[in-house]
Write a structure and sequence with these properties.
This protein has nine helices and eight strands. By secondary structure, the protein is α/β, with parallel strands linked by helices. The chain has a domain of about 160 residues: 3-Layer(aba) Sandwich (Rossmann fold), CATH 3.40.50.300. The strands form two sheets. A five-stranded parallel beta sheet has the order 2-6-1-7-8. About 40% of the residues are buried.
Length: about 250
Amino acid sequence: MLKKRDLSIDSEMKNNMLPDLDRSLRIAIDGPAGAGKSTVAREVARRLNVKYLDTGAMYRAVTLKLLQKGIAPSALPQIERILQQTVLEVKNGQKVFLDGVDVSDEIRQPYVNNLVSQVAAIPLVRSMMVKMQQAIAANSSGIVMDGRDIASRVMPNADYKFFLAAALPERARRRRKEQLERGLELSLESVIAEITERDRIDSQRSDSPLVVDPEAIVIDTTAMSFEAVVERILEIVRAGPNIPLQ
């Protein structure tokens, strides 16, 4: 089984903003694929000098392991057995090692993208990942975590909850830009189709579907720059937790 001792988080972030904040703060950032949550969450954590955890990378690593072993998402007994033999490490919040091998780039490949939502919908996998994520949060003096069920399940008592949204064409444009930067040539149409399918699976799965937590502040990032989104979140954090939702 994926035990707590098998997962380590190392954080070396510079303390360059908001030094007076309580380092025990928990920030949950949820949103669909391409909304910009991972890049934003990483920068918010850096500026707050707290840990960052990309939970999506954990599900991607499990997906890669199943692909490597030729195990279908429906083969639950095999999945449980293979997870018992898996060592997953996340360093610096986003560097992912699978059985001792750095798979940080490989887990971003299209063949992983195409299957990760199906794997993430498996209750067995989700239960294991959530327990690990909760253990990481419990052992952190402060953390920014992004995903799809962080506010609703992983950190329901988070000090701040955000949901980043964006129009589908803009999300697809961003995702395609990321893929082009990695040397992946995909058409905008195929990226739109991929994101649309991921949205469907993520929002309709029975276990921890993608939802907007009632306490979350929704930020539509469609027409916002990266810096503007980061500053908006930091502005809210500076103001304190007792602010009106918007």
